[in-house]
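Appendix B, record 7
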Amino acid sequence: MFKQVKLLFLYTETPLHVGSGSSLGTVDLPIQRERHTALPMIQSSGIKGKLRSAFDNGSNKDSIKVIFGSESSEHAGALAPGDARIILFPVRSLAGVFAWITCPLVINRLKRDLDIVKQQVTWSIPEPEEGQALVVPDNSNIVIDNAVVLEEFSFTATKNDQVQDFASWLANNSLPVRPENDEYKYWRNKLKKDLVIISDSAFTDFCKFSTDVVSRTNIDQATKTVKNGMLWTEENLPADTLLYTPLFACDPRSGNQNTVPAEVINAKAILDFVQTHLTNGHSRLQLGGNETVGRGIVATRIL
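Structure tokens (predicted):
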């Protein structure tokens, strides 16, 4: 049984492609999505594999075996990441370059998971109507004449104090922190001003139709032309998307506590070990495919 849980936030610094295989639709290689909501997600197996790969530097094999499981199937790992869910999706804005959007469905999921990790929050977001955009009361960069224009769609701007509280909480608790070089200061300040909450249906539509879709080719080195069949389209989550995943932990499953390193002796120690390694040396991970073309660089933070 899991005894401890933390939330791992993932902020995409470059477009992210975590694929679901080939498709017969308009996009050859779509991203992973939830079946019932069609919202973007990242399956937990990919996150766990990437964490294991990043942490396994050859000097902590016994601890890695406890956390992620034995490669010889002696026992399962004590760490269980969940699927990564979206919180904020960046959308082009007529003013302010771009805005982060979210919706009540996503927010209430986050509140439910924050309750699991015993994080109390004071914000409570009302349900916006169709065509309405809830924005921060003051200093928003994206409101023009009481309207918010996202892509080619116009929403009526409604100022709401709870949006400010939620935006400030996200800026202070989910975006990466770099005490030695605070390169995220600009993004925290922007988030406090440029967060927009729209209806669930509008948010879902943006997540379906406003992702990055790029065309890629494979060139024949001899003829310098595209190889036969080697032109395809590929979908990516855009840079500046924010996701999170719960990290569940139980006590080591090895059966012999005498062989368990002290740094991962129980569930709490295991999550502390993961948090320390993510903060000191693995504050950025590469997720998904296309590693050799710079895709999937994500900044991390654990709450």
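Remarks on this record: Helices lie at 44-55, 61-68, 104-116, 161-173, 185-193, 200-209, 267-279. The mean pLDDT is 86.
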